[in-house]
Amino acid sequence: MENIKRIYESVVSLGTYSFSRTNRHNHEMFELEISARDLPNIELKFLQENHIGCSLHYSMALLKLLRDIGVNAYICITLEKTPFASQNTYGHVSVYYVFNGEQFIADPIISVQTGNNNFFAIPFYDFLKENLKLWIYDPYGIHGSEPFFDGFLSQPANFY
Q: Residue 68: inside a domain, yes or no?
């Protein structure tokens, strides 16, 4: 677990949160039809070069680095409110992973926003209870070659 914490801390130290500035980057990825499989590398590089991101960028970077050390990790999407809607309609991205047979969620953007790095090992069922619905995706899996924003997101590996 110490390696996971170290990697988590390295990712959350890459920059700050900015949805509006990173939204342009997300739109470029959509227009270019970037595959789900390629997105983790692209988002890690984006964070390293720009030092800003949203939940998608930080979670994809964390996913890539966890997979690099052999951790069984996936992208998790939950719904959250936006300033423009009264219901939970916006996708919040975090990382689902399994360590020593236990399931966890790492939520790096919360650490970026609060400065509290204790969001790297949230017990899965606590997170599920709080969020009610979540989708688990594997960018490196069978649908990984599909464009992330247009095709891949309609193919969750699991839904809770």
A: yes
Q: Range of 131's domain?
A: 2-145
Confidence of residue 156 (pLDDT cuts 50, 70, 90): confident
- Structure letter (DSSP) for residue 133: -
Q: Which two tokens stand for residue 41?
A: 């590398």
Q: What's the rounded Cα separation, in Å, for the pair 87 and 74?
A: 26
135 lies in a domain? yes
d(CA 90, CA 41) in angstroms, rounded, equals 23
pTM of the model: 0.91
* Tokens found for residue 73: 């990790």
SS3 38: coil
Residue 14 forms part of a structural domain: yes
158 found inside a domain: no
